[in-house]
Records
---
Amino acid sequence: MTVFDEVKAALSMKTVAESCGLSVSRSGMVLCPFHKDKTPSAKIYHDIFHCFGCGVRVDVIGFVQRFFELKRPIDAVRKLNADFHLQLGLIGERILFDVREYRARQASRQEYEKWERESWLTLSSYYRLLLGWRELAPKSPDEKPDERFIYALHHLDKAEYLCEEFITADEEVKKSMAEAVAQAADFIRAQRV
Ligand SMILES: [Zn+2]
């Protein structure tokens, strides 16, 4: 375990948020300290703070770093270590290694979240595109149907299913849908040329 993991294992998001003066409702909702929030629009999960208003999503370390405007995540670790008397040894080479590992993990996390956002945009655009095409139905039985209309008839259910599945799925399942997302992206791109 890195010192980052040790801090996260020792402190729940709720404990840390409350120590910063946030009042957490029974359902875990709080006023977001990172934007002008009039009604609680952020939720405290076990180890994550997520604001549905401004989109900030951070763990206890990211939360403290942001809240106290600290320069680096390790500064937040130091602060939490001191404030909560965690007694983690924060000196020596191990810290350098841990910092590097934490950065790498953050980077891959951000990459995943970017992919997730873009994938959702792709799937929902694909669905909306087909919904539009379904309106291209022939006006009379003699009229030759538009190819896009026929495509929509065959693929609309699948597109709707993909959207629903993606919204509710956990990370692993989302990743397993990467090929379907890529196909939808290619399809949309092909319509633009
Ligand atoms: Zn916010």
---
Amino acid sequence: MSPEAGTGSPIGGTLPRPRSPATRDLGMRASLLFPDREVAERYYLPLIYTACRTCYSELEPQEIFDRATSGRVTTDKQQDLIRRVIESGHGSTIEHIVFTFAISGVTRTLSHQLVRHRAGVAFDQQSQRYLDYKRPSYMVPGTIADAPVEVRERYLAEMDESLAFYGEMLEAGIPGEDARFVMPNATRTNLIMTANLRSLIHMSGLRLCTMAQWEIRRLFQLIRHEIFTVSPFLGSFLAPKCVPLGYCDEDRNRDEHCPIRPHKDNVLAAWAEKRAAAKAKGREVPTL
Ligand SMILES: Cc1cc2nc3c(=O)[nH]c(=O)nc-3n(C[C@H](O)[C@H](O)[C@H](O)COP(=O)(O)OP(=O)(O)OC[C@H]3O[C@@H](n4cnc5c(N)ncnc54)[C@H](O)[C@@H]3O)c2cc1C
């Protein structure tokens, strides 16, 4: 049993919060299994373009798809329409393409959050019931890796003890499905996740937000990176939700400590000021 965290940080000092989850090697991976770059370039843009264009064209979708895949409709033109349709919120057009990821070395803390997403996404996860682990491993969060030595060592001892007890119970004939009850949230797990682009954009909006838990945020940074490698255009739609919204709607950011976008309270206050000024000048202001 081993932490396999590879945090590499010196022990001691205070308990700092990691500034960015991307600065540590947490021993987790997300690899895009499908599509590869060739498939993404050849089919993904034309498929979305065909879905968008079919709504506004007398042409049959077969013809639209042929024009897109043969280059008779340029990539720029396809991207322009797709961008406008996505920004208008016509989400069904981007449900036609899917991305499949192998996700490994993440904790059960993360997977519990990840599988809360229900729409447009499928998961298969390593079973703690059917698998008798020979070497369960766990993650060490950065704050604990950087904690005073006695805190870190106590954490490592607790993890090792729980997982050693798990092994002892298996040896004593306790079924894996019951022995696993001693496994901590930090235990690592593996999943396969397939999601359509609409759900990936939605999940990324929530999970790339700085209010999200650091490990799942890190996972979506990796996912975003993977999609960029096959399609920078499609990858560019994966962003914290405040980016397309233009404002932050997170209650815990009313103080705007995250500066990516202004909080909606302040946007509405500025808007109210503008309305009052317009009214004072005798201009008609529409009401709800
Ligand atoms: C920062 C953060 C903190 C969180 N804290 C907690 C917490 O303390 N406790 C907790 O339990 N959870 C928590 N969650 C999980 C959260 O409540 C959601 O369950 C999770 O993010 C899945 O989001 P979703 O339902 O929008 O996504 P999905 O299930 O992926 O759904 C996508 C969208 O489809 C629509 N949709 C899906 N299913 C339905 C349906 N049945 N009916 C109508 N519309 C539907 C909705 O518009 C939804 O937004 C947290 C999430 C975040 C990002």
